[in-house]
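Hello again, I could really use a second opinion on something today. I've been puzzling over a protein and I'd love to understand its fold better. I'm sending you its amino acid sequence along with the backbone structure tokens. It would help a lot if you went through both lines with me. I've dropped the whole record in just underneath, so have a look.
***
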Amino acid sequence: MTGGLLVLHLVLLALGAASQVAQPLIARRAPRAGAEGRAELMALAGQLGQVTRWALAGLIVTGLAMAWAGGHLAAPGPWFLVKIALVGALALVAWGRGLPPLARLGAPRLALLARGLLLAILAVTVLAFR
């Protein structure tokens, strides 16, 4: 069971990371496009944002399922708890970007924060499950 969950988890990670990288690249080109092109590019950037958020939701579900199956939820180690806190922070950035404290940061800073959190999650995952 966990082998299939791991494959799904890694596919979701790749999907979320790819859309997270592509979204700002597309949004950056929108201001230079004509009116019709700008609308299409911004719509595409919004759709990629949705893909990122759905992938993150899937990562949370599959990650918790694998942790439960592996017994990590019964006695979580400190690195696992750090990972959960980082995932919670990433989820807050992904779904709470309209909240005043996050909205004040602006989209470029939020994207940079999300990328930093993702890298931290990957590093802590290695420590949590070695």
Remarks:
- The mean pLDDT is 88.
- Residues 76-130 form one domain.
- The chain has two domains: 1-74, 76-130.
- DSSP finds five helices and no strands in the chain.
